[in-house]
Each structure stands twice: as structure tokens, then as C-alpha cells.
Amino acid sequence: MRLTMTVNGTERVVDDVWAGESLLYVLRERAGLPGSKNACEQGECGSCTVYLDGAPVCACLVAAGQAAGRQVRTVEGLCDGDALDVVQQAFLAAGAVQCGFCTPGLIVAAHDLLARNPAPDDATIREALSGNLCRCTGYEKILDAVRLAAARRAGREVAR
């Protein structure tokens, strides 16, 4: 089938999509957007989190055909040209990136949280990121990154 969707603000047409392909597969292998990671293929780890019509979803659980005519925003689409989003910058500054496998999904989840709640407390951050698993960091650096992004968004620069 032919799949037409808007990805990161640009209409994309992908041909010969098999009905059983996941949105994640189409994004990574057919659209050349490898940011979202393929880890569990069961929606348990959050590594493949993307926005679908403004809501975060696990792209591995979305059949590609379900994205037809819809808006998809990946971790690559959070950037403004070459400038990283404040959440992406905060993950780098806080050292929240280890192996990098969980990072794209965590960044999208944190981005969504801060769009809904610009000043979350630690319990709210933990709840918002609970669908994202990390095997390297122990989560403290990730929490630091979200706190830093929130502070920077609010105009409160935090020394790093």
C-alpha cells in the first residue's frame, strides 16, 4: 500500500508498505529516521516513543497504516533546524545519555511532560517517564535532565 503522512512537518509518501509493518519500521527503515529505537517491539520499553497527532505513542505498536493522513513527530523533529530542543540540550548537559538506546523515547516523553506541566515535581517526572526503561543510567541523571530542561524553559538558568 502507499502510505502518506506528515513527518516532522513534511508530507512523506512511502510506497509498498506491508499491512503488518509497524510505524517504527517505516520511520526507521523506509523514511530514514533512525532516532526512535527498536528495542522490545512490545511497547514495554518506550525507546520508540514518537508523537502521533500530538500524543506520545510507542511506534512499535502502531500499524503503519494507522498513520495514514496523520501527523508524526519523531525525536529528530524536536530540533529547530540544527538547534537542539531544550530537552535534548538538557540530556546532553546533565549526562543523561549513556548508551543512547532509551534516550530518544525519554526525550520525547520528557518533552511531552514539560509541554503539559512546565514545573513538574520529581514524583510527576517519574510517573511521566515510567513507560521508558533505561538499563544504564540509574535514572538520576535523567531526572536531572528533566529538571534542567524545566528550569531553562522557565528562564531559570541552572549551572552545569
Any overview of this molecule?
The chain is an alpha+beta fold. The chain folds into two domains: 3-75, Roll (Ubiquitin-like (UB roll)), CATH 3.10.20.30; 86-154, DNA polymerase, domain 1 (Orthogonal Bundle). The protein has five helices and five strands, in the order E-E-H-E-E-E-H-H-H-H. The protein has a five-stranded mixed sheet with strand order 2-1-5-3-4, sandwiched between helices. Helix 2 packs across helix 5. The longest helix is centred in the C-terminal third of the chain and has 14 residues, at 103-116. The protein starts with a strand and ends in a 7-residue tail after the last helix. It comes from Actinocatenispora thailandica. InterPro entries: 2Fe-2S-bd, 2Fe-2S-bd_dom_sf, 2Fe-2S_ferredoxin-like_sf, 2Fe-2S_ferredoxin-type, 2Fe2S_fd_BS, Beta-grasp_dom_sf, Diverse_Oxidoreductases. GO terms for molecular function: 2 iron, 2 sulfur cluster binding; metal ion binding; oxidoreductase activity.
Major sheet: 5 strands, mixed
Question: Looking across the biggest beta sheet, what order are the strands in?
Answer: 2-1-5-3-4
Tell me the count of domains: 2
- Report low-confidence residues grouped into runs of 5 or more: none
How many beta-strand elements? 5
What is the SS-derived class? alpha+beta
Q: What spatial form do the alpha-carbon principal axes imply?
A: globular
Mean pLDDT: 95
